[in-house]
Write a structure and sequence with these properties.
The protein is an alpha/beta fold. It folds into two domains: 2-232 and 507-534, no CATH class; 242-494, Nitrilase/N-carbamoyl-D-aminoacid amidohydrolase, CATH 3.60.110. Helix content is 46%, strand content 13%. The chain has helices at residues 2-14, 17-31, 44-59, 66-89, 94-97, 100-103, 107-131, 138-154, 180-197, 201-204, 208-231, 253-256, 262-274, 302-311, 369-374, 441-457, 505-534; strands at residues 243-248, 286-288, 317-326, 336-345, 350-355, 396-397, 403-408, 427-432, 461-465, 470-473, 479-483, 489-494. The strands form two sheets. The chain has a six-stranded mixed β-sheet with strand order 5-4-3-2-1-12. A six-stranded mixed β-sheet has the order 6-7-8-9-10-11, with helices on one face. Helix 1 crosses helix 3 (44-59) and helix 2 (17-31) packs antiparallel against helix 3 (44-59).
């Protein structure tokens, strides 16, 4: 087998022109199978070695100067990223087909333009790794550090979009999720890229023993910490938590946007809130509806609040997504609108609320608004003047001392934006409406990323989605009860038990940068050794 791998590596390294470009593109596209719902991380054991061998070929390119090799490395990484993001994010175009007559023109931008932009980060990763490239295991360390830094940058530059970071491929099940509580998403990404790339050493042999040893140790630590974390005794017995009911109405997006259907949409949520569930006797303490589930401005509709009070018992709480209107400020003639999560008691009173902090560009607001609107482009989820963003996240405080940390829609994909207030939270509550993306990989990918936030912060999660995937899970990512994609109905369960929060966000950041520093140090030492041997 070793001889076959060596021949494959040599063949890849010697390719040039369009063949080299095609290999990079297909290697990245193959990696899309590592994302949900396929969750086949084994494909990255092919994709990343191919990328390493392509980079090796650049190092051997005759007559290429330092800048030329960096440019070629960037282009190789960009092609790899373009294949990966087209293959794993094509479904975003579905959101534009909801109102196809107005937004179909933008399909190429969603399906090809966004991946082309995101691929720039992988091009940057390849160029950074090229600075430390050698012929042994050091180049694997360089690639792992570079990808981790690039993914971290992707999480916040230009408002950030860390969707399908490589680290998620290493965390498809709870056993393999627990390391994220120690190292964070980007620390796990560094380790994952090292392990995925290690088979490349079979093709060149130099550094094979230490590289294989470190990769095996990383994998063993990843699995071992997961096993340890899963067997820990919960700090809070599950029986003492509140009983939660999730309502998943599976309402078509066009129906939600039809003014004539608003009353029917509202009543369907109420019906599912009280529907008798087979084998369930307990009355829920908290009922949860998905994002923008209330199809009108609730504060302008006292009849709707009265209907909620009619359905709820006095000691029950409803948590629902809604658009919140704020009256015009002094000197302004227009109201401000917020994508909000509201808490309503059994008497129909709004007792708490929180607004979305991180809005979706072109989805909930238009960047460079004056210029873009003049071109006739509006946000997909339009409100007059667009949505406004809250300045900071705030906890939802419920009766009985329950505190919930709200994550509205894709706020759940940003690990670095979850404030330290999460340490006071009883649970995370993530409401979303993934019906925009149809029956595609999108809702599965979104669910996995939200699930990882529960493990990362060691905080149970209540997640409710219009068409799924909805679930109640503990802080180890184990699902207590849930509904699959497009499964209409309701489920309820007692909120999951908790194990100790051993690491804070600051701790995870420290661990991440320590991992990156050690990888760069290893790569730099290998680079110096390589240069001394070749000069």
């Amino acid at each position: 087998m070793g001889g076959c791998v060596e021949r494959l590596a040599s063949w890849v390294m010697l390719q040039w022109g369009w063949k080299r470009a095609l290999i990079a593109l297909l290697a990245g596209a193959c990696g899309a199978l590592a994302t949900a719902p396929f969750s086949l991380p084994i494909v990255f054991f092919l994709s990343f070695p191919l990328l390493v061998w392509l980079m090796d070929g650049l190092a051997a390119a005759p007559g290429a100067g330092a800048f030329g090799k960096l440019r070629a490395a960037f282009f190789t990484g960009w092609l790899f990223g373009f294949g990966y993001f087209v293959g794993s994010l094509w479904w975003i175009g579905n959101a534009l087909l909801v109102e196809a007559d107005e937004f179909a023109w933008a399909l190429p931008l969603a399906i090809l333009g966004l991946p082309a932009y995101l691929a720039l980060y992988y091009g940057l990763a390849a160029a950074m790794a090229r600075l430390f490239w050698s012929d042994g295991v050091g180049r694997i360390a360089a690639l792992a550090a570079a990808f981790a830094i690039a993914e971290w940058l992707r999480g916040w530059l230009a408002t950030g979009f860390p969707w399908n970071a490589i680290g998620y491929a290493a965390m498809p099940i709870p056993l393999l999720m627990q390391s994220v509580h120690f190292a964070g998403l980007f620390g796990v990404t560094a380790g994952a890229v090292f392990v995925f790339s290690a088979p490349a050493l079979l093709g060149t042999r130099r550094g094979l023993v230490p590289g294989a040893l470190v990769a095996c140790l990383l994998l063993a630590a990843h699995v071992g910490y997961g096993a340890y974390r899963l067997q820990e005794t919960p700090a809070t017995p599950a029986a003492k938590g509140p009983v939660i009911r999730l309502v998943q109405p599976v309402i078509d997006q066009m129906k939600k946007m039809d003014d004539k259907e608003k009353s029917a949409v509202f009543e369907e949520h109420l019906r599912l809130s009280t529907e008798k569930l087979p084998g369930v006797a307990d009355k829920p303490n908290i009922i949860v509806w998905p994002e923008t589930s209330i199809p009108f401005i609730l504060t302008d509709n006292q009849d709707a609040l009265t209907r909620i009070a009619d359905v709820l018992d006095d000691d029950q709480i409803l948590i629902a997504g809604a658009v919140r209107e704020e009256a015009p400020a002094a000197g302004s003639s227009s109201s401000r609108y917020y994508n909000a999560i509201l808490v309503i008691d059994g008497r129909g009173n709004i007792i708490a609320g929180a607004d979305k902090v991180h809005l979706v560009p072109f989805g909930e607001y238009v960047p460079f608004e004056d210029f873009i609107l003049n071109l006739g482009i509006r946000a997909v989820a339009q409100m007059p003047g667009g949505y406004s963003a809250a300045a900071v996240p705030r906890l939802l405080e419920l009766p009985g001392g329950i505190k919930l940390y709200p994550l509205i829609c894709y706020e759940a994909i940003f690990p670095d934006e979850i404030a330290e207030a999460v340490n006071e939270a009883t649970a995370l509550v993530n409401i979303t409406n993934d019906a925009w993306f149809g029956n595609s990989p999108g809702p599965y990918q979104h669910f996995l990323q939200a699930r990882i936030r529960a493990v990362e912060t060691a905080t149970p999660m209540i997640r409710d989605a219009n068409n799924g995937i909805s679930a109640i899970m503990n802080n180890r990512g184990e699902i207590i009860s849930g509904l699959d994609l497009n499964a209409k109905g309701a489920v309820q369960a007692t909120l999951g038990s908790s194990v100790e929060k051993k690491w804070s966000h600051a701790d995870r950041n420290l661990h991440f940068w320590l991992i990156v520093f050690l990888l760069i140090l290893w790569a730099a030492f290998s680079r110096v050794s390589f240069k001394s041997r070749t000069n």
